[in-house]
Amino acid sequence: MAINFPAGIKTITISSGPTKVVYYPRVTGMQNKQLQHFINSTIVRENQQLINEQTGNMDTTVVDLYGYYEIKNNQREVLSLSLNNYVYHYHAAHGMTVIKSLTFNLQKGQQVALKDLFKPGSDYVKRISDLIGVQIKERDIPLLVNFTAIKPDQDFYIADKALVVYFQLYEITPYAYGFPMFPISVYDLQDIIDENGPLGRMAMN
């Protein structure tokens, strides 16, 4: 049986030397070429922005730059991916990595923010924050400050039947902990998610 993914993915490489290599995805094979162009332009822009944030306005020399991507979801007309960029500056105590995720509702032809996944007026911030608070306690996650709530535009991606909300390095935990990732089942959010949106489609059997 043939399986058709909503978007084909091709890996693009940009490099300025053996220690400075970035891999990023290019979407291919979509029937809607205008949407395909929009997605690829968004990926290129966000990828370049990550590089600029990590290498620009710094007096020190960049020794290592490595970027790669992960496709988190490519089904049910939902494309969700993460761009991961690591940079190490000369004489720095350690390198720094930043993760930027992009999610697209291919059915409506648009990029979606966290708020777009839920019904208008629903208090998704409190619901997600409460669920994360439980995970912090259960997983005994070390915090730099007391966790109270996520930002309305908190980083996230969709992975099958889970919404994964995450934080950058140093945002709520010490560097050594890495990236705090909090997978939340769509069924724990089912009463507030937009049934016609990406999470609604993920919740369908």
Plain-language structure description:
The protein has 205 residues and is of the alpha+beta class. The protein is built from three helices and nine strands, in the order ββαββββαβββα. The strands form two sheets. It has a six-stranded mixed beta sheet with strand order 1-2-3-4-5-6, covered by helices on one side. Strands 7-8-9 form a three-stranded antiparallel beta sheet. It is flat. It starts with 7 loop residues before the first strand and ends with a helix. The relative contact order is 0.14. The mean pLDDT is 92.
Layout of strands and helices, then pairs:
Blueprint: E1 8-15, E2 20-28, H1 33-55, E3 62-75, E4 78-89, E5 96-105, E6 110-111, H2 124-138, E7 156-159, E8 162-166, E9 181-185, H3 198-203
Parallel strand pairs: 2-3
Antiparallel strand pairs: 1-2, 3-4, 4-5, 5-6, 7-8, 8-9
